[in-house]
Amino acid sequence: MTGATESIKQPRATAGSWYEFATRHRASIVAAVILIFPLVMPFTALAVNILIYGLYAVGFNLVFGYLGLLSFGHAALFGTGAYLCGIAIVHFGWPWYAAIAAGIAGGLLMASLIGVLAIRTRGIYFAMVTMALSQCIYYLFYQAVDLTGGENGLRGINVRTIDLFGLRLDFINPMIRYYVIAAFVIAAFFVMSRILASPFGAVIEAVRENEMRARASGYDVTKTRLLTFVLSGGFCGLAGALQALHLSIVPIEILHYETSGLVVMIALLGGMGTFFGPMIGAAVFLVLENVVSVWTVHWQLIVGAIFIACVLFFPAGIWGTLIARGRR
After folding, report:
1. Measuring CA to CA, which of 26, 38, 70, 155 is 20 to 30 A from 225?
2. Nearest to 277 by CA among 325, 304, 316
3. Membrane-crossing residues (predicted)?
4. Secondary structure class of 311 (helix, strand, coil)
5. What DSSP assignment string belongs to 130-185?
């Protein structure tokens, strides 16, 4: 009987060890996947879009999945990063690396402004307040025609070469463009992994699980929420800056509430509160969009039906459900 019991428990121990290994080296695993990713994609531009929207979803997931707050205003953070990066290049002639820094700073600043006003609300009220504030930012950028181009968007973000430690990289080349953007995404994943593994990361999850107990333990819940929202803005601002460099334009639609809804879908599809989930959600959604749109102009109907099926059969998201089943 003892031998039979040990033989039954052995696969669980093996699965657990693999899960522990993947958790400990999660950022390195993501980096390895990103490096080989363009080799399995039908075209490089799609792989770049998946990286950028995956990073956008990673920033959103920090608030939604790990902190437990649903925001409908993350388009403001994503769009502000894109616009400030573009404005720095088009109107001020900044180099590409300074423009990316401006995009990150823009995401952090916008998250601070929205967070201070919205972070004291809860549940659906938080979602509605963030959406309302995001729409205010949309109209602010829409009206600033001289800086943003208004409804035509910001154009002329032309970065043809990347000067890096004496090397001149051709940013027009699709593969070089992919790996330059991938370097920033990989660095962001390592930073995110470090945040989640830190004591502050544990406090974030403690606030999500039981706010009253976290407050009773001496943690400042309000400051934790605000700082988490600001950090999320930094990741989203970086994603927006990379999007501006990738497209060479910043359309006004990047600030629309549909962009906020898109990242919610991506996070739910991949698995909220998981490290790999946002990237998987971005990959599944964008690949479906590109494949189905070739067959029909009504691709949103088909992708929506697939999304509903995923929600029904993968209630914790694709990656979240796979983790739950693998740990049984």
Report:
1. 26
2. 316
3. 29-56, 62-84, 96-118, 124-142, 178-197, 226-250, 262-287, 299-324
4. helix
5. HHHHHHHHHHHHHH-HHHH-GGG-B------EEEETTEEEETTSHHHHHHHHHHHH
pLDDT value at position 326? 67
Tokens of 169: 């990289």
The CA distance from 229 to 64, in Å, is: 10
What local confidence, expressed as pLDDT, does residue 316 receive?
87
Residue owning tokens 């973000």: 157
Q: Which residues contact 328 (CB under 8 A, 6 or more apart)?
A: 12
Question: Does the structure show a pLDDT above 60 at 269?
Answer: yes
The Cα–Cα gap between 277 and 258 comes to 21
**pLDDT tens digits, one per residue of 205-232:** 999 999 999 999 999 999 999 999 999 9
d(CA 70, CA 225): 12
Give the mean model confidence (pLDDT) for residues 169-185. 96
CA distance 133 to 264: 17
Query: Which of 178, 145, 161, 138 is CA-nearest to residue 52?
Result: 178
Query: Has this prediction a pTM greater than 0.90?
Result: yes
